[in-house]
Design brief:
Pathway: Glycan biosynthesis; starch biosynthesis. By secondary structure, the chain is an alpha/beta fold. The chain contains 18 helices and 18 strands. The chain has helices at residues 43-51, 63-80, 134-148, 222-240, 256-263, 290-294, 324-331, 340-348, 353-358, 393-406, 429-441, 455-468, 482-491, 507-513, 540-545, 563-572, 574-585, 591-605, and strands at 26-30, 33-37, 118-122, 152-158, 169-181, 184-195, 198-205, 246-250, 274-279, 287-289, 321-323, 334-337, 363-365, 416-422, 445-451, 474-478, 494-497, 535-536. Helix 3 (134-148) crosses helix 18 (591-605), helix 4 packs across helix 5 (256-263) and helix 10 packs across helix 13 (482-491). The radius of gyration is 25 Å and the shape is globular. The relative contact order is 0.10. The structure holds adenosine-5'-diphosphate. Adenosine-5'-diphosphate is lined by residues 133-135, 137, 420-422, 449-451, 480-482, 485, 504-507.
Length: 609
C-alpha cells in the first residue's frame, strides 16, 4: 500500500498519521471525509497522496479552513464525551473500558537484530497486571522492545491472587511440577499466556504464597515467598529443559536466583544461561537471615562473608543477616542500574558502594525508557479523547473530564498539576505537601494520586485529603489506579516529581509523552523541575531526563521548569506554552532508544553453543 493511515482515536474525530511519510500532515477525519493540510506535506508525500488508495476524499485546504476544522473537531470531541460527575455511582476511572488491552499500534519500522537471543525475565512486577511502581513498567517496556527487535522473550512472575485473569490472553496451564521449599516439595502450576502481546509464565504454588488483595503486603512471609519463587523459576527451566541465553533478574526479590543458579542448577542440567541483574532502587536490599536462605536449599552460612552476601551495614553488626541484593551483585554476570547519574551516586554512597566498586567492570548505567505502546495518548483506551503532538485538542477534553469528574472548577485557564507516586519518603513527601498549599495559594489546581505502604503516612495524607478535598482546587486520592493515572497524565498541564532521590523515574517521561511539561519547584533552590512540563529535583534519572528551560546553555534539550516560573509562563504565554507541550510530546524517551544497550550487555556475556 502506498499510504497507510492509522486511526488512533476510537470514536473521536482526530487521528494520527502514524506512518513516517505522513507524520507531518495535519489530518482530520469526519464523516468519512479526510482533510489533509498539504502545507505541511512534502512533495513526495503529496505524490503519494495523489496516488493513494485511501477511500476518503482528499483535498488541499487553507490555514483558515484548518483552524475552522480544528474548532469544529474540538466541538465534536466535546459532544462525544460522556461527562462524569463526582456524584456518579461508579467513579469515572472504574467505568467499563471497551478493552484493557493497550490497543497497540505496534511500530513496524524497528530493525531486527542479526544475532538473536532468548531472554527470560524473572520479576516480582509486570505492568499492567501486577504493577506497583516503575519496576513493572520497565519489565514490560524492555521485553516489548526486545521482542520487536526479533528476540524471544518470556516474563516469569508469581501468579498473584490479585491478578485479574481476564487481563491475560490465551491463559493456559502449561505444566505442573514440584519445587523445593523448607524440607518439602511444593506442588506448583506454571501457566502461559499473553499480556499486551508479551509472553508470560505465571508460577502458582499450592500453598499460601502470593495470596491477598495486593501484589505486596499479603499475610505470608514475603521474603520466603520470593526465595521460593526464585528457585521455582529455575526448577521450571530445569524440568522443562528450557535454556535461555539470559536470565534477567530484578531487585532483591529475585536476588537469590543467581546464587541458586551458580551454586546448584548449573551442576544439574542448566548450563547455558548467563545472569543479568537490574537494580531499580538500592534502598531495598533483601535482608535475609541465614536460616531463611537455608529454606530454598542453599547453605546460608556459606554466604555470610564479605565477598558473598554480607554488606557493609551488617558486617560486624548483624553478620547473621545476609543481603540478597549484595549476593546477586557478586553472582550475576552483569549488573545494570537505571541511569548513569544513579550509577555514580551508588558508587559514592550506600551500603553496597564497596561491592559495586569491586564489581565496577560489570556494572552499567542504562537509562530506562517508557513503553510507548502502552503509554500513547493517540491510542490510550483509558482516555475520553485521544490526541497527538500535531493536534492536542483531545488533551483539553481530558483536562475538563478530570475537572468535572472530580468536582474541580473547569472555567478559565487554570494550570493543573498532578503528582502520581508511591507515597514514601524517597518521593519527597514534605515537598508534595508544600506544593499542595503553594498551588492552592497561587491559583492552580492539583491532583495527587498515591498510595502509602506505611499506615502513618496514609493517615497523614487522609487528614490532608479531608482538609483540601472539600474545595474546588485540590484532590488527594489515596489509592492505586492504573486507569486514573493515564487520565491524569493526559489531563495535566504539569507533572510534579519532587523526589529526594530518584534512580530513574518514569513519571516525568510519561508526563512529557502526554504533553505535560516539567518545571522546577519554586522557593526551593534544590528543585528545578517540572509541572507536566516536569517539575523535578536534580537527582538520579531526573537529572538525565529533565533539563531546565530557562538554562540557555543547552536549549536543544530543555524541557523542564520551576513551579513558579511554570505558572507565570502558563498564564502569560499561552501560545509559547502550547509549543512546549508539542515539543515535549515529541521527545523520544522510548525503549527503542536504549534497549540496544541492554542487548549489548546480553551479547557481551552470552555463551554460544
Ligand atoms: P517508582 O518505581 O519509584 O515507584 P517511577 O517513577 O519509576 O517510580 O514509576 C512509577 C510508576 O508507577 C509510574 O508508571 C506511575 O504512573 C505509577 N504509579 C505510582 N503510583 C501510582 C498510583 N497510586 N496509581 C497508579 N499508578 C501509580
Amino acid at each position: 500500500m502506498d499510504v497507510v493511515v492509522s486511526i488512533a482515536a476510537s470514536s473521536s474525530s482526530v487521528f494520527t498519521a502514524s506512518q513516517t511519510k505522513l507524520s507531518h500532515c495535519f489530518c482530520v477525519i469526519r464523516n468519512k471525509k479526510t482533510i489533509i493540510n498539504r502545507k505541511f506535506v512534502s512533495d513526495s508525500t503529496k505524490d503519494l497522496l495523489n496516488r493513494s488508495s485511501i477511500n476518503h476524499k482528499i483535498r488541499a485546504i487553507s490555514v483558515d479552513e484548518v483552524n475552522a476544522v480544528k474548532r469544529e473537531s474540538l466541538a465534536g470531541l466535546v459532544n462525544d464525551v460522556d461527562w462524569p460527575s463526582p456524584s456518579d455511582e461508579i467513579p469515572f476511572w472504574k467505568r467499563k473500558f471497551h478493552t484493557r488491552d493497550v490497543n497497540p499500534e505496534i511500530p513496524d519500522n524497528i530493525e531486527k537484530d542479526s544475532e538473536l537471543l532468548y531472554v527470560i525475565h524473572v520479576t516480582a512486577e509486570m505492568a499492567p497486571i501486577a504493577k506497583v511502581g516503575g519496576l513493572g513498567d520497565v519489565v514490560t517496556g524492555l521485553a516489548r522492545a526486545c521482542l520487536l527487535r526479533g528476540h524471544k522473550v518470556d516474563i516469569m512472575l508469581p501468579f498473584y491472587e490479585c491478578i485479574q485473569k481476564d487481563d491475560i490472553q490465551e491463559l493456559s496451564l502449561m505444566s505442573t511440577y514440584s519445587s523445593y521449599f523448607d524440607g518439602n516439595w511444593i506442588q506448583t502450576n506454571a501457566y502461559s499466556g499473553l499480556v499486551s502481546d508479551i509472553p508470560v509464565i505465571l508460577i502458582e504454588p499450592m500453598n499460601q504464597f502470593f495470596k491477598g488483595e495486593d501484589v505486596y503486603g499479603g499475610s505470608y512471609n514475603e521474603l520466603e515467598a520470593y526465595l521460593f519463587f526464585s528457585r521455582a523459576c529455575l526448577e521450571w527451566m530445569q524440568v522443562t529443559g528450557t535454556q535461555p541465553d539470559i536470565i534477567h533478574v530484578h531487585e532483591w526479590q529475585t536476588g537469590a536466583l543467581p546464587l541458586l543458579y551458580w551454586d546448584m542448577y548449573c551442576y544439574l542440567s542448566l548450563q547455558k544461561p548467563r545472569i543479568v541483574l537490574t537494580i531499580h532502587n538500592m534502598e531495598h536490599y533483601g535482608e535475609c537471615r541465614q536460616e531463611q536462605l537455608n529454606k530454598c536449599g542453599l547453605d546460608g552460612s556459606l554466604y555470610a562473608t564479605i565477598d558473598k552476601a554480607i554488606d557493609d551495614r551488617t558486617i560486624g553488626h548483624n553478620p547473621e543477616r545476609l543481603s540478597l541484593l549484595k549476593g546477586a551483585i557478586v553472582y550475576s554476570n552483569s549488573v545494570v542500574t537505571v541511569s548513569a547519574t544513579y550509577l555514580n551516586e551508588t558508587l559514592c554512597s550506600g551500603w553496597l558502594a564497596s561491592a559495586l566498586l569491586t564489581n565496577r567492570d560489570k556494572y552499567h548505567g542504562i537509562l530506562n525508557g517508557i513503553d510507548t505502546v502502552m503509554w500513547n495518548p493517540a491510542s490510550d483506551v483509558f482516555l475520553p479523547a485521544n490526541y497527538h503532538a500535531h493536534n492536542t485538542d483531545g488533551k483539553k477534553v481530558c483536562k475538563q473530564y478530570l475537572q468535572r469528574g472530580l468536582g474541580l472548577a473547569f472555567e478559565g485557564r487554570v494550570p493543573l498539576v498532578v503528582c502520581i507516586s508511591r507515597l514514601v519518603a524517597q518521593k519527597g513527601l514534605h515537598l508534595i505537601k508544600h506544593a499542595i498549599n503553594h498551588i492552592e495559594k497561587h491559583g492552580g489546581q492539583m491532583i495527587v494520586l498515591g498510595k502509602a505502604p506505611d499506615g502513618r503516612v496514609q493517615e497523614e495524607f487522609e487528614a490532608l485529603a479531608k482538609l483540601h478535598n472539600k474545595g474546588s482546587t485540590i484532590r488527594i486520592l489515596l489509592m492505586y489506579s492504573e486507569e486514573l493515572s493515564h487520565m491524569l497524565y493526559a489531563g495535566a498541564d504539569m507533572v510534579l516529581v519532587p523526589s529526594i532521590y530518584e534512580p530513574c523515574g518514569l513519571a516525568q517521561m510519561i508526563g512529557m509523552r502526554y504533553g505535560s511539561t516539567s518545571t522546577t519547584y519554586a522557593n526551593t533552590k534544590l528543585l528545578y523541575g517540572s509541572f507536566q512540563v516536569p517539575i523535578v529535583r536534580k537527582t538520579g534519572g531526573l537529572a538525565d531526563t529533565v533539563f531546565d528551560m530557562d538554562d540557555q546553555s543547552q536549549p536543544e534539550v530543555a524541557n523542564g521548569r520551576t513551579l513558579d516560573r511554570a505558572f507565570s509562563y502558563y498564564k502569560e504565554k499561552p501560545i509559547e506554552w502550547a509549543h512546549i507541550v508539542q515539543k515535549v510530546m515529541q521527545i523520544d524517551n522510548s525503549w527503542n532508544k536504549t534497549a540496544s544497550k541492554y542487548i549489548d550487555v546480553y551479547n557481551s556475556i552470552r555463551v554460544r553453543w
